[in-house]
Amino acid sequence: MVLENQMPWCHARLYNDGMPRSMQDAVSSAALHAAKNDVNAKVIRDCIESRVQDLLSSPVPAAPLDVIARLHALFIYQILRLLDTDARVRLSYDATMPHLEAAAYALLQHITFHESATPGQANHAADVLPLYPISATRDFWEAWVFQESARRTLAIVLSFLMIYHYMKGEVLVQCGNNTFACRSVTLSAHLWRAGDPVDFALAWRNKRHFVVHGDESVPVTVVMEDAKSDDIDEFGKIFLTGYMGIDEAKGWLAMRGVTL
Predict the structure, then answer these.
(1) Which superkingdom heads the taxonomic lineage of this protein's source (predicted)?
(2) Same domain, 152 and 170
(3) CA-CA distances (angstroms) from residue 69 to 35, 53, 72, 239?
């Protein structure tokens, strides 16, 4: 995020028109953490923890971009805390988990999910996006950037939470809830990496994109049976590894010329 203004679940253009303060603080905290050493560790740790507390004490936002920014920020802080060996940080990590979960479910109301996929079939919208005039396609693309970032963010955060609850022995209840909440994501490197509305429209027209569903009504391997090496981005690798396990995913990807 610091170097490229993106994560596998946060599109590079999501905050293009303005990054909410919560994410500004989180990204700068990540940059501070990257510069941490034995000399400055305590000061940097205190700075990061102070920003976490500022975020937790701030009002819960209502605007969709602010809602996803709050979730992204909390997730970044939790990842940074996992990398810290200080026992006090671990206590703060545990105490923040309910806030992370609440932020994830707050985002849920702003997400539009896909309809169920047909086995073995890539998902395309019925309408072809126009190349000219481009305004309607630009609006569609900008909405897609938010929606797909939100769907991917929800998927990765709920997976993170499931692992956390599993370690606490709560997996059976949480797995069911989280699978229901995380209904679908799109796996398409072509759509995700499109740099402008024209490239997006061309990818929408000419490239396959695969919608996978959290309820596994159609297995991921069936939906993506015809996927090629250039269809799979970093999030796709993360998703497939979580679904199959490291060795199976590595083999499945290798058959398509992709390195895990």
Answers:
(1) Eukaryota
(2) yes
(3) 23, 16, 5, 22
Number of domains the chain contains? 2
Give the tens place of pLDDT for each residue, 101-130. Answer: 999 999 999 999 876 544 444 445 546 899
Count other C-beta atoms under 10 Å from residue 74's C-beta.
Answer: 24
Q: Residue 7 phi/psi, 5° resolution?
A: -135, 165
Residue 252: predicted pLDDT: 93
Pair 127, 237 in one domain: yes
Q: Considering the entire predicted model, what is its pTM? A: 0.90
Which residue numbers in the chain have pLDDT < 50? 117-123, 126
Alpha helices in the chain (DSSP H): 21-34, 41-57, 64-82, 87-108, 135-167, 171-181, 189-193, 197-206, 220-223, 234-244, 246-254
Q: What is the DSSP letter of 219?
A: -
